[in-house]
């Protein structure tokens, strides 16, 4: 069940105790939303399919054991592009079968009403073997030896299992499945469960997999093709890593990661991994992410395979994405959200757990600091009026697909982290264990989780805090006013919803878990429950953070004196506190809540501090300002000041990694080089060109990690000959990860004629079929310097560019495209183009994209004069990087 924000505000008034979940708020099958009637419940499926690769069809037979709870004359379930034949209930022919592809339903009218009890529905059917990654699909790819191959795989979430076989395709209808597939005998085959039987007949083999535990249909998996595997064991669970033959050894690192992660999760969740085996399957291309099918996780191969051409960023992704998908094996698979309105229960949870695991096992990556960038992107979206609550109503298939956005993932992850910090990690873990034990092999709602956390911690207030943050859109700005008496400080807090533009019509408020740090002390927790709340906070001259370690999903505005104290102490603050100050000061200046100068004073106070996330934040903000200044008279003067801010740190780091450096410092070096090159620093351009000249004849001359920054700088300043050299390198490259880097660099050209050629390359058949998803990224990258060209290319080729994203295309079109092309087209033209491609029900999503574009336009206008003023003041004063 889902509560509206207005209802949430009403329960808040009743206080913490009254807000404990009512009995009906926990998962209840009968009351779970959905489109299918609840009186016919599938218990067990036997599905047998034979894909025809040439005809792109599937021939299937299916037998479903059902429990009918109330006598019925009809049976309704999901289907799409399927034709059913010989439909029988308990062996007797039915009287009518109508499949409606528009509603994605089949209605079977029975010869006579079926009484309550168990029955068996059986039929034969045909379906489509898809060529885009939804349902069961055919994937073409280029093999390591350059020849072409095909394989068959599946991708069901949210609502595409119905494309492979007719089914009750809603997550509350958990059922057991026994899958049989007939395909080429040369194929290796993988599904959720181990192979139970394999019979070869001529050139074909029929493989039956063991019956699965009860699970939702969206977790069904099958992959078949010329695959090879590595294997390992962890605590009695067989781990497999599958890739197209010849590439399986590239999965060694991923397999070792999976062993570690599985062992950690067995321990953390307090329930051992419940299936006999867990496979990871590297699909060449297909969809661009990964899917947590129970026992058989599919990954786009670039998220799983590593070779000597891979970068540290690739390596990090392999760990982090596996940590996310393996977390789903418990939360998502063992316990599944009741309905798609609680999708965040799956996604936020997996993201939060994965970030903790990645951070724990790779401390030098400073993973939570890296996650701050993702949190900021979510806060940017959530600071607009058109945002939505983490929990949002989902009525149909389209809305289910559209729920996969930064609010569901990144905001949800941050809110869980904030709750974990509020309760403490042990109590939070105990609550998670209690929740999983209580709901195993079944479904859950958010309230099931809140109740378990409250029971484990003995703290009822966690329910109210959690609801405030998941049921209301947006987040608060905490205003901190310090009163000094005899040098002793008292803080007075107030809050209102933070919006980058406009004002909040609902007067929303939140219970806010603050973490106060005074000076260098250990932070203390304090719950901000009402305006005017006071708190003692040490001496007035000590630095202060009320969002220590940047864990909270809120903004903080300090009074001028406190901000000045923090700015003076800026270089000595703990990393997380420094990051929070930068994030907030930047967001407050964009929203017109604080002068840009306050932010730039913090940036200038970084000194010789090496924290890469802080510098990332600064480089990103300066980059945004530089972009807004392009074409204006002040651009030259601004970039000179921006370069002066980064250059001392860049010079101290040099160009080449030093022994013993952490990945964080190496990343910082690349970030600074990249920006200095983008801002036309002559020495950076010259050195990048020198390195590129060596790279042309010797690919080992620039390490994979450094290629992105060096090649981007080279491409940015490229003449036609240099462009052709880089293009030839991209064309001649066999490794997909390297290809992606080279083509991405090509899109950074400044010259308009070369940009046209870059666009042609992005659309060309040079991009191999398994990297088809890259094209959209390339055109989006081109928009940075050539917005009008990129918009023309995008609109003329939108079908081709969006084809690899069949499920997410509406979400991308509505919410992301306007933010990319905000300056390429007039607002009305942009919105009209988006509306013409989408159904009317997507108006809320379109409003998000439209507002994002409007915010960018307004920001550019408002910042222009602030930037010029800063440049004028800065030019009249000593250099910013005073030691
Ligand atoms: Zn996920």
Residue share in helix: 40-55%
The end-to-end span amounts to: 58 Å
Question: Could you give a short account of the major beta sheet?
Answer: 8 strands, mixed
What is the tally of helical segments?
28
The bound ligands are: zinc ion
Query: What is the alpha-carbon Rg in Å?
Result: 28 Å
Give the mean pLDDT.
Answer: 93
Give unreliable regions as ranges.
1-24, 879-883
What is the number of strand segments?
A: 29
- In order across it, which strands form the biggest sheet? 5-4-8-2-1-11-14-13
Short description:
The chain is of the alpha+beta class and 883 residues long. The radius of gyration is 28 Å and the shape is globular.
Task: Give an overview of the whole structure.
- With 883 residues, this protein is an alpha+beta fold.
- Helices cover 43% and strands 22% of the residues.
- Strands 5-4-8-2-1-11-14-13 form an eight-stranded mixed sheet, with no helix packed on it. It has a five-stranded mixed sheet with strand order 16-17-18-20-19, covered by helices on one side.
- α3 links the parallel β17 and β18.
- α15 (612-629) runs antiparallel to α16 and α22 (752-763) runs antiparallel to α23 (774-782).
- The protein binds zinc ion.
- Zinc ion binds at residues 292, 324, 328, 347, 350.
- Zinc ion is lined by residues 292, 324, 328, 347, 350.
Key phrases:
883 residues; alpha+beta; 28 helices; 22% strand; disordered C terminus; binds zinc ion
Give the helices and strands, then pairings:
Elements lengths: L4 H9 L26 E13 L4 E12 L3 E7 L4 E7 L2 E2 L2 E5 L4 E10 L2 E12 L6 E8 L5 E8 L5 H4 L11 E9 L3 E4 L3 E7 L2 E6 L12 E4 L1 E8 L2 E8 L7 H18 L7 E7 L6 E2 L4 E5 L11 H17 L6 E3 L5 H19 L5 H16 L14 H6 L3 H18 L1 H15 L2 E3 L1 H12 L3 H11 L4 E10 L2 E10 L14 E7 L5 E5 L5 E6 L4 E2 L9 E4 L1 H9 L6 H16 L5 H9 L7 H18 L5 H19 L9 H16 L3 H16 L6 H13 L3 H13 L3 H11 L5 H12 L10 H9 L4 H10 L1 H5 L6 H12 L6 H11 L5 H33 L8
Parallel strand pairs: 1-11, 17-18, 18-20, 21-22, 23-29
Antiparallel strand pairs: 1-2, 2-8, 3-7, 4-5, 4-8, 6-7, 9-10, 11-14, 12-15, 13-14, 16-17, 19-20, 23-24, 24-27, 25-26, 25-28
Helix pairs in contact: 1-11, 3-4, 4-5, 5-8, 6-8, 6-13, 8-9, 8-11, 9-10, 10-11, 13-14, 13-15, 15-16, 15-17, 16-17, 17-19, 18-19, 19-21, 20-21, 22-23, 23-24, 26-27, 26-28, 27-28
